[in-house]
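Usage example:
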Amino acid sequence: MGAKTLFDKIWDTHVVHSIKDGPQVVYIDRHFIHEVTSPQAFAGLKKRGIGVFNTSKTIATADHNVPTKDQHLPIKDALSRHQVNTLINNCDEFGVELYGLGHPYQGIVHVIGPELGITQPGMTIVCGDSHTSTHGAFGNIAFGIGTSEVEQVLATQCVLQRKPKTMKIQVDGKLKQGVVSKDIILYVISQISTSGGTGYFVEFCGSAIESLSMEARMTICNMSIEMGARGGMIAPDETTFEYIKGREFAPNGTDWDKKLAHWKALKTDEDAVFDTEYHFNAVDIEPMITYGTNPGMGIGITESVPAINPTSDPSLTKALDYMDLQGGGQLLGKKIDYVFIGSCTNSRIEDLRMVADLVKGKQKADHVNAMIIPGSKQVEKQAMEEGIDQILAGAGFELRQPGCSACLGMNEDKVPTGKYCVSTSNRNFEGRQGPGARTMLASPLTAAAAAITGHITDVRKMLN
Amino acid sequence: MEKFKKLISTAVALSLQDVDTDQIIPARFLKATTREGFGDNLFRDWRYNANDEPNSDFILNQSEVGGEILVAGKNFGCGSSREHAAWAIYDYGFKVVISSFFADIFKNNALNNGLLPVQISDEFLLKIFAAIEVDNKTQLEVDLENEQITIIQTRESENFDISPYKKYCLQEGYDDIDFLISKREEIEAFENTISI
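Running the assembly step on the lines above writes:
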């Protein structure tokens, strides 16, 4: 065999069966489920009269639809309550481990997998959620699936998939002050567009990527889907192994040594060929912000919104109409109403620390509603232990309880019609944070800066 | 899953690019625990205004336009993996979605529900939009057996690709899960060889 990419190596060792000129049966090592995309899959199993193929490989949590206040009380919204209860009943009936509301491990599915050490290098991981790509930061193949595929995995521990093409995205150099991993990925998507990665699985590499912490790497892989990619991955290294070691479900003893030896071999061969490659320089990246209604519509904070030609670009025209922004104008100084810090992209302890460091001793602008949603109960606990909750409260930020929250507005946490929200989440689609809400995606630093000043701000001016 | 062979129908044209699944079915309508009924909220926030009144500018609210085929701009179905998007389109009454480019997860979800995603060239997509703009009663023929789409009025046609396996599934109403269940023994044998 010739030289292989990391993606090829992991994929090929998980193929159970290949259909001629068709998809392959791919074995799945870990399957995460949540309340929104699993009920119809369990209903399918019941209809067929079959059980879960291997209950030890599926882990459930409630995140998308849960309130972020008073989680100890029954969920007020009847439909949400029914959906969460359906998950509880299904997990009970089929023997699936559930970290539901009230459990110390509950949280956003893509936050808890890594923090519990369930997510490991070399695995195949799926979940009925497109941001499953997050887990790829550990050097595995992780991707989002639909509910029919959730049913496939529950029934057979496999999915039928066509093997995607491979793409390398290399980012070299040192990041400038005030520029963090969220800015890298928003920059990359702005360069290759919201569909530039469709049909591909991406490996991120280069010195700028290697220098990042695991949490920062997760932010990058998380948003691979926002350029259309099936998933994103980063080869595991010492940073990865150090992060996993000692976590709840990490291997230990001789098992650790055996796994570690395997993980260390997980890298793309030097002369392996990718179907497509991109190279970027870290020094070209500014703090980023989006102006439009898809994550590819992003600019450096000091840049101008593109000028529009309504006849040649109806989609951009519609986007700017929705955002009530002028083509050709700057965003700096634009008054904002909400700041949302959270989601599977940026709700981990490092994100909260980053925000706390910036806002310590400051006050949010009076007119801004600033919400911080920790990614999990463990993140929440850690934040309290470090006194981050006090710093945030002192600055006028509201620290709520874990869940997906205003990233997609399935619960009560919504941005009202016409209001601008600087958000650390992953999607600025029309209505994503509530009908008529206007979302601007940015890093936790840029979002925190906007909360303090009350308008779009170049965070670099607030750093020493 | 229902069988699909051939369809001749008028079509609804939605020429916007990058239509994401949040537009197809907003998250607040994902609370149901069954697959039915999502068609009522298909394109909810484009179809209805803030007072829940139909928005007369939106294509689905124009009574003279209809059909079982949805024709959409490039990169249709991007964003969230919610299969509810495919369910909503199918539940509304569409059997085929035509675009010059589909997001990966949406395409899989559509195929798993008997909703045929037909990917054609940018040029042919423009021809279809132009034909519908001239006459909104333009009929399209989607012939799965011959992997061909034809604008009936102009007799212009183009071939589309579909894997032989997926074609068989659609023609026979056969699900991926049926196939996978038939492979359970092979999967069990595989599972016994791995250590993760």
